[in-house]
Amino acid sequence: QKEVEQDPGPLSVPEGAIVSLNCTYSNSAFQYFMWYRQYSRKGPELLMYTYSSGNKEDGRFTAQVDKSSKYISLFIRDSQPSDSATYLCAMSGDSGGGADGLTFGKGTHLIIQP
Amino acid sequence: DTAVSQTPKYLVTQMGNDKSIKCEQNLGHDTMYWYKQDSKKFLKIMFSYNNKELIINETVPNRFSPKSPDKAHLNLHINSLELGDSAVYFCASSQVKDRGSTDTQYFGPGTRLTVL
């Protein structure tokens, strides 16, 4: 079993829809949870990060972490064609990713149809 | 100005050759990383360097060796290239803080390596 599981998609939704992206993980030592967005042939860019359990909102994006279920989510409201990209979840232990690096999911390819 | 830059962007080479990929960051960060993204888009940590010390080294063949001439650079040398080395290699950097905190990892644009 991989440490982080993520459905690769593709996930295709119409413009304006609410998008839900999810990851599950097995390592209970993970404390920091991040979502990266990667456009085709570009490097990943950080969208949001959350420490431990809880919710975090930033504009149209909301990140949720449920450590008891080892389950994290990213919600995108009022989705736009420019949101079309691959979304990768990433997580790390107590050092915050500095010493251990990040453990990534495989990424979900999201397509927003105009 | 580009925060994390990599050269070359594309690298096509024959099996058995030795090649290097360069990475530079102008963010003043103290930790740099190399990640490998395979054909299935799976991104996996290879190395990280903090203050010129190798912090982690995952199960990466010893044909791969990171070299850090200074805090702003972390180059990746690959000897005796194999077909399975074909992938996109990403450099990243971050400012490591004390335990209990985290910081953003900034990624470079990637180097697409193709081994023929």
Structure description:
The complex is a heterodimer of chains A (114) and B (116). With 114 residues, chain A is an all-beta fold. Chain A contains no helices and eleven strands. Chain A has one domain: Immunoglobulin-like. In chain A, 0% of the residues lie in helices and 53% in strands. In chain A, strands 2, 4, 5, 9, 10 and 11 form a six-stranded mixed β-sheet that branches. Chain B has one domain (4-97): Sandwich (Immunoglobulin-like). Helix content of chain B is 0%, strand content 54%. Chain B starts with a strand and ends with a strand. The mean pLDDT of chain B is 88. The A-B interface holds A 8, 32, 36, 41-46, 49, 51, 86, 88, 92, 94-104, 106-107 and B 4, 31, 33, 35, 40-45, 48, 50, 55-56, 58, 90, 92, 94, 96-97, 99-110, 112.
Radius of gyration of chain A: 13 Å
Structure summary, number of beta strands of chain A: 11
Elements of chain A, N to C (H/E):
EEEEEEEEEEE
Q: What is the residue-averaged pLDDT of chain A?
A: 90
Question: Which class of chain B in CATH terms?
Answer: Mainly Beta
- The domain count of chain B comes to 1
For the largest interface in this structure, which chains are involved and how many residues does each contribute?
Answer: A-B, 27 and 33 residues
Number of strands of chain B: 11
What structural category do the secondary elements of chain B indicate? Answer: mainly beta
CATH topology of chain A: Immunoglobulin-like
How would the global form of chain B be characterised? globular
The backbone outline of chain A, from C-alpha atoms, is globular
Helix count of chain B, per DSSP?
Answer: 0
The quaternary organization reads as heterodimer
